[in-house]
Amino acid sequence: MPTYDLVVRGGTVIDGTGGKARSADVAVKDGVVVAVGDVDGTAERTIDADGALVTPGFVDIHTHYDGQATWDNQLLPSSWHGVTTVVMGNCGVGFAPVRPSDHQRLIELMEGVEDIPGAALHEGLSWDWQTFPEYLDALERLPHDIDFAAQVPHGAVRLHVMGERGANREVATPEEIEAMGRIVREAVEAGALGFTTSRTLNHRTSRGEPTPTLTAAADELIGIAAAMGKSGAGVLEVVSDFIDAETEWTTLRGMVEASGRPLSISVAAQSRRPGTATLLDLIGEAADAGLPIKGQVAARAIGVLLGLQATLNPFLGHETYKEIAGLSLEERVRIMRDPSFKEKLLSSVEPEKQKNFLRFSGGYERLFELSDPPDYEPSPDQSIGARARREGREADELVYELMLEDDGRRLLYMPIFNYGDGDLEACREMLLHDHSVPGLGDGGAHVGTICDGSFPTTLLTHWGRDRSRGERIDLEFLVSRQTRETAAHVGLHDRGVLAPGKKADINVIDFDQLTLHPPTMSFDLPAGGKRLLQRADGYLHTIVSGTEVYANGEHTGALPGKLVRGAQPA
Asked: In CATH, what class is 59-301+420-488?
């Protein structure tokens, strides 16, 4: 009889601990790594990894597959990028607990906050649950390609307990806080990984209303966290504007102190106080005081994609474009190629509207053509504004022509946060911070404006190999951050490291050929809903619990992925 189920032989192993890469074999039995080194014995299957990297599967702690996981076996695009475990339910939005009368509200909240088409959610969600434990049961009934874990969203909990008062952001009573805390504790005890909330004005429903959790008082947040802490499990996740930085920081610290549970906070380089360095300094000071707080940081700029297929394009608000906005892509392209229509639109461009549309991003000086492969650290002299000046033409005309390329499928890239100095040095500093973890990729969300579920591939390619506009980062460090560190932060100690006894989630990667493709628009969501998807070359084998799920980027048909119920011991 074979000694092992699988042996990955002769690869360059980066084991997730941060230790130096080494040549080694990895042996797997019953879904668990049983040996790393010179492995003797036979196996039912052997993978020749000579010349390839062998890493743990990546753990992405910031996704929004809350709807998709109920109807789709494949958690794309994450599983195309070496991710073998995703954590969803971030930013306080999700679909449980829920009363039947609140289905529409939760769809509008997810549609507005995370740019997931409402029609797709209406058709795709079965709603065969009301409580959070029932939602977990529903998730578990469908097999998946990779593992996934769910968190309890504050928005849904608040609506469930407070009804209209919760939606209107009224102050919760002590009885309501107690009820919310009880729901969260019961959810965590049933297998939810933690509790999440949103406190940013950027998050609004599809009706334009602020999220129900925006102004939740400190006693509500601390009360819920304390109740969760009584379970002895669970993590906390928060996104906040930090407008009143001192008060907000006191509240977030209070949540950790009351619960004794880890907290992560979204961090981006931006102009609003307290600013990236200050917030990470505060996180560092808290960690030095024994409080388990991390900053979630991005692998590249946080921005948007624009184009005729995307949710946004630079002419969206102009009356001439509105005349054709509802037509098919093919019809719009045909009309826009007519010189008379082009003249009409460009001559009617209203500078004030154009300024308003682009003001938050730096305008055409911060807008770039998305190349193939994508350059996520373009130099300022590549911007649409700089190119237009060199060519002696108006930037509006250049944008117009670029959007018509590839039959209207060309995408433009607008980095917003993390790109203030025209490079990604702020990202590098955040990634290297002692108390940060990679996150914020939003896999499954913002489907018409971004495709940042590819962040793990950017970590390896841009920071570990290709960066030319500044220092790179050691590959061993990057792998450790996206495997052991992300897994450990959310309590998944059974994965993220290639070592005996750990879950056999493995990537075999042709590092020299690892390449991102530009995102493309697909129309495969329920009700024909659109979403941006992004592939990568170079992932030779992606293995979940010892079973290969992707080979050279193609799904093998295997569905070993499971719902992860709660923290997992080492």
From this structure: alpha beta
pLDDT for 271 beyond 50: no
Query: Phi-psi category of 70—alpha, beta or left, where left has phi over 0 and alpha has psi -120 to 50?
Result: alpha
What CA–CA distance (Å, rounded) separates 93 from 300? 24
Measured CA distances, 417 to 199, 300, 303 (Å): 18, 9, 7
Q: How far apart are CA 531 and CA 524, in angstroms?
A: 8
CA–CA dist 534, 454 (Å, integer): 7
Q: φ, ψ for residue 536 (rounded to 5)?
A: -140, 145
DSSP letter for each residue of 326-381:
TS-HHHHHHHHTSHHHHHHHHHT--HHHHHHHHTTTTGGGG-EE--SS--SS--GG
Contact 154, 93 (CB under 8 A): no
Digit-coded pLDDT (tens) for 48-79: 999 999 999 999 999 999 999 999 999 999 99
In sequence order, the 6+-apart residues with CB closer than 8 A to the CB of 243 are: 272, 273
The residues, any chain, with a CB within 8 Å of residue 220's CB and separated by 6 or more, are 171, 172, 177, 180
Which sequence spans correspond to the domains of the chain? 59-301+420-488, 307-417
Q: Which residues pair with 50 in a beta bridge?
A: none
Report the C-alpha dihedral over residues 65, 70, 75, 78, rounded to 10 degrees.
Answer: 10
**pTM of the prediction?**
0.96
**Sequence letter at residue 34:** V
Compute CA distances 135 → 78, 87, 132, 476, 559, whole Å. Answer: 22, 15, 5, 37, 20
Q: What angle do CA 94, 257, 494 make, to 5 degrees?
A: 60
121 three-state secondary structure: helix
Cβ pair 109, 211 in contact under 8 A? yes
Element containing residue 232 per DSSP (H, E): none
Adjacent-strand bridge partners of 438: 297
Say what angle helices 154-162 and 103-114 make with each other, to 10 degrees.
150
d(CA 90, CA 189): 18
Q: What is the pLDDT of residue 277?
A: 54
Tokens of 126: 């079965």
60: helix, strand or coil: strand
Tell me 82's DSSP state: T
Nearest to 354 by CA among 365, 367, 363: 363
At 273 the pLDDT is 43
d(CA 194, CA 153): 9
Phi, psi of 562 (to 5 degrees): -135, 160
- Output b/e per residue, 248-270; b: 16+ Cβ within 10 A: bbebbbbbbbbbebbbbbbbbbb
